[in-house]
Amino acid sequence: MAFFLDAILLAPVKGLVWIAEQIQEQAEKERMDEEGVKRKLTELYMLLETGQISEEEFERQEEELVARLEEIEAYHKNRGSL
């Protein structure tokens, strides 16, 4: 009986924990999406070529995206060695 009451009382908390874990997992997938970062780099080059962004803005964003690609590569290397 006590187990049943504990399960009922803890269900909302367990539900919130599960939701938080799902959000974290999805955010990690998006952050480690190599193809998405490459797509953004391609878009960035097109914006520069069409004059829609300045050279300075291009360099700033390119630096961020390249750093993310390096982070993704390191992440995949570390996962492979586990």
Descriptive account of the structure:
With 82 residues, the protein is mostly helical. It is elongated. It is built from three helices and no strands. The protein is 88% helix and 0% strand. It folds into two domains: 1-31; 33-82.
Query: Approximately how much helix is present in the residues?
Result: over 70%
Radius of gyration: 21 Å
> What is the H/E string?
HHH
Number of beta strands: 0
Low-confidence parts lasting 5 or more residues at pLDDT below 50?
none
Strand content: under 5%
Distance between the termini: 43 Å
SSE blueprint:
Elements (H helix, E strand, L loop, with lengths): L1 H30 L2 H16 L5 H26 L2
Short description:
By secondary structure, this protein is an all-alpha fold. It is 88% helix and 0% strand.
For this entry, give a set of tags.
3 helices, 2 domains, mainly alpha, 82 residues
